[in-house]
Write the structure tokens for this entry.
Amino acid sequence: MTQQQPIASPFGMRSTASEVISGIDLKGKAALVTGGYSGLGLETVRALAGAGAKVFVGARRPEAAAVDLEGVAGDITILTLDLSDPVSIDAFATDLARQTDRIDILINNAAIMACPLARDARGYESQFATNHLGHFQMTARIWPLLKAAGPGTRVVVLSSIGHARSAVDLADPHFVHRDYEKWTAYGQAKTANALFAMHFDEIGKPFGIRAFAVHPGGIKTPLQRFLTMDEQIAMGWFDKDGNPNPLFKSTEQGAATSIWCAVSPLLEGEGGVYCEDCNIAAFWTEGMHPYVGVRPHAVDRDMAAALWKASEKMTGVAFPD
């Protein structure tokens, strides 16, 4: 388990990305944000670029990304990246290495949620393949760029409170032998994201590279495109008039914890932890709101190591070191 101990952070649930990054100078730094042209990703890119970072955006739809990012100020480069396609991932990594010799901040932000059963060319379930395995392969391919940036490099992996729905089933991660259930699949993928951050932190720590898992909060974004409004009302996300739950955040508030993990000096010497509301999250215990805290299965070191080995086998990709 990690040391999930909240710290004295001046920011909280309603803090915005711009507030968190205020006063931080990222000139000379290079950042990569996957899916950085929609929802939380767009606000994340806006904050990083606004602080002076050169920002690369991995985009499955580069033409749409160009339109969405048109009004965002800063040094932004869009590169094609389809996280469900291993060939696209390798091509992206090669393209990125041609354009920069370092990545100081990596934010694995792109995701799909609660979609109907779909499989990639390998037969892998799409949520696990895209949200976890795609980022696993991509991060492995750009490892030399992360290492070149040296101590102080940070990797932020977007998890979700959805991790509470399911641990990772390494016996059948792709729903070959069990019935597919979209929320179980999403929960498994988001748990995998948190476990990836934990184990990556162990690998990166000797090089001064630290990793963090993030629950951004409840936000209305295009991530919900596979859900009907009736489903979202039934889950309490919206009322019958379409008004969001008061606990929902704006997209700029939702991007704040990713930015906090990427730049906050309060996290120097920290890593391998699950964060929410611009702080290290506490373990969830009985009586706490179900939408806060981290469940033990998402910060289990043995499971993180086992998932890492299984991911190397599934992708055929290993980190060079």
